Amino acid sequence: MAERMVGKQAPRFEMEAVLSNKEFGKISLEENMKNDKWTVLFFYPMDFTFVCPTEITAMSDRYDEFEDLDAEVIGVSTDTIHTHLAWINTDRKDNGLGDLRYPLAADTNHQVSRDYGVLIEEEGIALRGMYIISPEGELMYQVVFHNNIGRDVEETLRVLQALQTGGLCPANWKPGQATL
Fold it and tell me: What's a Gene Ontology MF term here (predicted)?
């Protein structure tokens, strides 16, 4: 039986990544927590696919809005940092990513995907999972869905802002509206 994650401390991670400056480095949840940042962690199945670049570039195009909300965005797949870099170095018109404003992490041993419950074991790839983690390390939001559907960046921003109100947000709540 699956175990609840929301409302508990998020699984800690440290992964190799291609940083926004196209250099290799490490990213970790602990670093974001130390810097008092929210973490928007999202998993996608594979580099050089069709749906993935649409959502990865959409997140990058809206990165300033995440930054304004004190949030760090991290994309994760089970591909290597070398594959990530090759995809980043491929122009968007050629189904590449072009420049990204946030890191793409490599979960090559599948441990982080497994810890977050998105690993398709028999394929060695992740489902599309989105997690929002507070600066204190509490997992506040989780959504996992089939790999043929891209996520909605607008909804991710809305949920992040709702969580940051600290209040009760009714159905269809939008930033700037009153909480309950």
Answer: thioredoxin peroxidase activity
